[in-house]
Amino acid sequence: MQKHLLKKLLIVCILGLLPNSAMAIRIKDLASFDGVRDNQLIGYGLVVGLNGTGDSDQTSFPVQSLVNVLERMGVTVNRSEIKVKNVAAVMVTATLPPFAKQGSKLDVLVSSMGDSKSIAGGTLLMTPLKGADGQVYAVAQGGILTNSFSYGGQAASAQKNHPTAGRVPEGALIERELPNILADRSQLRLNLRQSDFTTASRVAAAINDKFKGGVAFCSDPGTIVLTIPTPFQGRTVEFVAELERLEVQPDTLAKVVLNERTGTIVMGENVRISTVAVSHGNLTLFIKETPKVSQPQPLSTGQTVVVPRTSVSVTESPGGLAVLRQGAEIGEVVRALNALGVTPRDLIGIMQAIKAAGALQAELTVI
Prior knowledge:
3 domains; four-stranded antiparallel sheet; 7 helices
């Protein structure tokens, strides 16, 4: 038994001597390269094949679009004679990832624009998807999946999920590629997702230590400029792969976030509190109305009246007084306030009062 206990103590001591690397995060998760980003695409299209749940006659642009489609196919029709309920006008959106190649497929989101009741079971006709520059980067077409239904009559209806929006999995084909922004470059820019002086300095130091030279320097708290080392000239992908695997411990602000609507409280690791005393007590007021009817005797000249009766009781729970010492960590603060029996909503008011007293050494944000 003693041997087993000694073994446990030895493991604890060894773990205590190990460096605190549990919080180290890959550079890949902390930053992204300048220009390597997604691009949004959008297009206008038609969904056909609906079971009478398309746009009504009051929505004119789906009919006009249908006429234009038929005319491009060599079918001449009179717009005033077209009355269909199985066609719906939709907006089609997609996200074009960086380095996507021609012929690759994308998922698209299809959303109704008119007064269609449901686009479930419909088919999206060929729709060009354009970027912010007006160029066509993909073409979408295919069957729509909504995972929903909507049925009903004059007196009742049933609906599941949202029937006027759906997806076409791998429904778009990429027709135009984005330029490769990493090709033939001697310098790269690494942008931190959260700007911070300390984190940027640690990232630059980790990169210089890995590649044995002045490869990286901080131009501002959110940007690290990288010079591609000579051994990696013309091998940018290998250099980026080596760099992204490096681990850095990011620094965070001391911050407390309060959500008064939901009672949610989030406190950062570095939150500290100066010496302060906190008292908390609840006052509960019960008011109960028990009216009594006063009825006169038979054959008398009195009137039947309602006599109000109100009972009031007040209960005040004893409030404790907790002293939070200077430099107390977040765990000690929570334990001390829990000892007072405070609820999350009460804790919001307490934290605001501590901040007003100047004892909270952190940024307080109320959302």
